[in-house]
C-alpha cells in the first residue's frame, strides 16, 4: 500500500513540475506574499487560534486567560465586548465558550509545533523570544499555514478543471476566481480564518470523489479510478477528509450531498443486484465510520466546553431552516425575508439593496455559475451534484437569518469553499469563448474582475476609514472609490510596502 502510494506521489510530482499552469499559480502565490499580514487580531481569528495555544501551554480548554491576553493586545478588536461577556460562560461547565470549530487548529497544529521548536532552539542561542504562544513566530506559522492550504486548494481546483479543459482555460479560471473573489483576502489579509483551510479540505474531498467515481454514463469506474470501482481505501479517505472538512467549518458537511446523490443513483442501478448493493453498502459503512471518527475531536470539545456533545445556542439559535435570505445571499436586491418565510425576522429589511450579496461583491462567481451550465453537456451527473452542493451552501447561508449579510467582513466569505465549482464553470466558459473570439476576449475581462476586487481590498483595508466598505457596498460612491483607489495606492506605496504598520489597528510603528 505504502509503496503504491509513494509511486503515485512521485508520478504526480513529476507531472506537476512540468505543468505551466501549476507553475504560474505557485509563482503568483509567491509574488503576492509581500501583501501578507500575519497576525491574530479579532474575535473569529482568536477563537480558531486559542485551541492550539491553550492546549500546548495551559494543557486545558479554559480560554479565560487567552481571551483576556488577546483583548489586552488588541483592545479595540471586539474581544472584550463579545468573547469575555458573562453570557459567554457556559452554565454547565463554568468555561468561556468557543464557537469556532476545532478543525483549523488540527490542520495548523504541525506548523504551530514547528514554530515552538524553532523558538526554543533560537532561545538556546540567546534570542529571547517569549515561548508562550503569543509571540510572533507562533501566529506567523499559523497564518502562513492557512495561506499554504489556500494555495493547495487553488491547485486542486485547477486539477479538477483540467479534467475538462486545456491548460490555458484552467489556469485563467483558477487565477481569476482566486484573485477576483474574497479568497485572496482571506489568504493574505485576514489569514487565520478557517476559509483557506476549509477550501483545501473541500477541494481535496471533491478531488478524491471525482477521481474515483464511476463513469457518469454506465456506473463503471471512470478514467480517474484506474478502471476499478471505488475501493476501500478511497472510501476511507473520503470519510476521513469529509469529517475533517466538517469540523473545520460545520456548514461544509453539506458537501456530503455529493456522495449521497451518487449513492442514490448507484442503489437505483443495483436494485436487481442485491449482492452488489450489499458490497456497496459495506463500503458506505466504512465511509460513515471514518467520518464519525473524525467528528470525535469536535464532539469532545463540545462536551468539555458546553457540557454536552453539541454546539452552543449562539450558532444553532441563529438558524431559520426555511432560509429566509437564500436569494439575498447571492443578490440582495430586496434584503427583506424571502416570500416563503413570511414569519422570519425583518431585521435586515432596512439594509440598502445590492450591498452584501455574493454575486454583487464578486461578479466572477456569477460567471462561474453560468459556465457550470456547459458542464451539463459533458457530465450531467457531475453538473447536478456540483449545482446541488452550491445550492446547499447558499441555503445554509440564507438560513442565518440575522447574520447572513456578514456585515463587517470582506465580501461574502462563506462561499469561498465553493471555489472549485466556480473554477470549473469559469474554465468551461473561458474555453468556449476563447475558441470563438480569441484569448483576449477572456483575458481582458479576467483582468478587469481582478482589478475590481483588488480595488475593493484597498478600500476595505487601507482606505476603510473613509469608505467604511466592510459595512456594505454604498452605491454610487463605490464607483468613485474604485476609480480613486489605484491613484491613492500609488501615493501611499512607500507605506504599503515598508510601513504597513501605519494602517493596522492596535499597532504602532517602531
How would you sum up this structure, described in words?
- This protein has 510 residues and is mostly helical.
- It has 2 domains: 1-31; 32-503, no CATH class.
- The chain contains 22 helices and no strands.
- It has helices spanning 2-17, 20-31, 43-58, 64-73, 103-124, 136-162, 167-179, 183-188, 195-211, 232-246, 257-269, 274-306, 313-316, 326-330, 358-361, 363-378, 380-399, 419-437, 440-460, 464-467, 477-491, 493-498.
What is the secondary structure topology, with strand pairs?
Layout: H1 2-17, H2 20-31, H3 43-58, H4 64-73, H5 103-124, H6 136-162, H7 167-179, H8 183-188, H9 195-211, H10 232-246, H11 257-269, H12 274-306, H13 313-316, H14 326-330, H15 358-361, H16 363-378, H17 380-399, H18 419-437, H19 440-460, H20 464-467, H21 477-491, H22 493-498
Helix pairs in contact: 2-6, 2-7, 3-5, 5-6, 6-7, 6-9, 6-18, 7-18, 7-19, 9-10, 10-12, 11-17, 16-17, 16-18, 19-21
- End-to-end separation: 54 Å
Q: Beta fraction of the residues?
A: under 5%
Main sheet summary:
none
Number of strands: 0
What structural category arises from helix and sheet content? mainly alpha
The 3D shape can be described as: globular
Number of helices, where a helix is a run of at least 4 consecutive DSSP H or I residues = 22
Which consecutive residue ranges, at least 5 long each, have pLDDT under 50? Answer: 1-5, 216-227
Sketch the topology as an H/E string, one letter per element.
HHHHHHHHHHHHHHHHHHHHHH
Helix content: 55-70%
Average pLDDT reading: 90
Whole-number tally of structural domains: 2
Radius of gyration: 23 Å
